[in-house]
Specification:
It contains four helices and 13 strands. The chain is of the alpha+beta class and about 200 residues long. The chain folds into two domains: about 100 residues, RimP-like superfamily, N-terminal (GMP Synthetase, Chain A, domain 3, 2-Layer Sandwich), CATH 3.30.300.70; about 60 residues, SH3 type barrels, CATH 2.30.30.100. The strands form three sheets. The chain has a five-stranded mixed sheet. The chain is globular. About 25% of the residues are buried.
């Protein structure tokens, strides 16, 4: 089982217990620190409070199970309008929508495709690009994202929420610049450099 699959089996029950769905996760190593991104979804939409609560629950489980030996940053967020698609079921839920696909290896001389998803057929994505229909092997897909169409309502709530945790302290959020968020440990303010401690703004650190 891959590292991502191990983490998914550990995190999915935590997310479900909080009334949300684990949409997907990504794990990467960046120098001495690893990054774990967890995407959660809900028919009612994902709020910042959902992200904060689930972040802390995941952090507690990770502290006990210790599946990542090195220091890491945990980010929990909604998938967003341009959400990445991970599973066959997720692809099927977006039939009729435009998606962008990047393949691991070239297919008919190209790796990137963008078009209308017509369905899945025998393990292949059926993608309509202009007047040409392509059958792209799902196992060859490196990354696939929904292409948002402004003015349309997506399958999930349009708002995006996210929070990043190192240990149990909230460090980041996709809020507007100037917004503030209160945490039991810190008063955080959104700046052009992300969320910072309010005391740092006053002292100029």
């Amino acid at each position: 089982m891959s590292r991502a699959a191990d983490l998914e089996s550990l995190i999915a029950p935590v997310v479900v217990a909080q009334g949300c769905e684990l949409w997907g996760l990504e794990f990467s190593v960046q120098g001495r620190r690893s990054l774990l991104r967890v995407y959660i979804d809900s028919p009612a939409g994902v709020t910042l409070e959902n992200c904060e609560r689930i972040s802390r629950q995941i952090s507690a489980v990770m502290d006990v199970e210790d599946p990542i030996a090195s220091a890491y940053t945990l980010e929990v967020s909604s998938p967003g309008l341009d959400r990445q698609l991970y599973t066959p079921a997720q692809f099927m839920s977006y039939v009729g929508h435009r998606i962008a696909v990047r393949l691991r290896a070239p297919y008919q001389g190209r790796r990137r495709f963008q078009g209308l998803l017509n369905g899945l057929e025998d393990g292949d994505l059926v993608l309509q690009v202009d007047d040409t229909e392509y059958l792209l092997p799902l196992e060859s897909v490196d990354k696939a994202n929904v292409v948002p169409v402004f003015g349309e309502v997506s399958n999930s709530a349009s708002s995006e929420s996210s929070v990043a945790l190192e240990g149990s302290v909230a460090l980041g959020s996709t809020l507007r610049e100037g917004d503030a968020i209160e945490d039991s440990d810190l008063d955080l303010v959104v700046t052009d450099q992300g969320l910072v401690n309010d005391d740092e703004l006053e002292t100029g650190k």
